Amino acid sequence: MPEEKNYEKESKLPFVSIIISTYNRAHYIKITIDSFLNQCYPPDLYEIIICDNNSTDHTKQVIEEYKNSKDGNRIRYLFEKRQGMHFARNYAAKKSCGDLLYFADDDVIADRNLLSELVKVFEDKRVGCASGKILPKWECVPPKWVEKYCNNSLLSLNDLGDATKISRNDLGVWGCHEAVRRDVFFEAGGFHLDLVGNGPGIGDGETGMNDDIKHLGYRLAYVGTSITYHMIPARRMTQTYLNKRYEYNGNS
Predict the structure, then answer these.
(1) How far is CA 207 from each of CA 117, 153, 203, 250, rounded to the nearest angstrom?
(2) Contact assessment for residue 145 and residue 202, using Cβ atoms and an 8 Å cutoff
(3) Would you give the distance in Å from CA 201 to the centre of its chain?
(4) Mean pLDDT of 102-114
(5) Is residue 56 helix, strand or coil?
(6) Beta strand pairing status for 75-79 and 46-52?
(7) Which of 29, 93, 114, 245 counts the highest number of beta carbons within 10 A?
(8) Are 22 and 51 in contact (CB under 8 A)?
(9) Phi/psi at 246 (nearest 5 deg)?
(10) What is the DSSP letter of 142?
(11) Which of 183, 175, 212, 187 is nearest to 84 (CA)?
């Protein structure tokens, strides 16, 4: 068991870097960005970094359309040619300014209170990283068997109730809704890279990083009032897709 650190309470609001890695999701990314622009967190205390992971669609054009808007100076565009979500996340983290690094997928819709609720748990310096509630945003009515059996890691969902929990255990901290202290992120070495060449989804990504964070002596947290919605299209509700996801999870 790692040695306990000497912790204090933090008081001031942290500056947050929202990091969104994206690949060929031009039809989703604007929805995601707009939800983060609409946060009830001081706008001068967070930035939004979009890291384009070598997209071949019109993702860059979608981001550039924000440049002339009133929120243009709050959004930064980066490009990472190396294929793999964690290449993009780690690269964006190095270019970020935040005291907290918040990672989101390019197909989520953030609740307006997501940031304001999530940052509270970091007043406790024992906490190295934290997540919150991840609910489905079904694009069509899901089959009954999907609703009953396919949650959590298969569809990156997480609902442990409305309370805040702090633990040495994982608590379902997924990279689509995860905040990490900046210094802890780099001390832990960032996200574990996918095993490039062996197919997408193979590797231990945030799971490996979260284990490293625990081994450094920090705890993980779940904040039930910090909510995001994961958009789930029909193709993810098929036996073929879910079998492949089981395979990837097994390899991980």
Answers:
(1) 23, 11, 9, 13
(2) no
(3) 15
(4) 97
(5) coil
(6) parallel
(7) 114
(8) yes
(9) -60, -40
(10) P
(11) 175
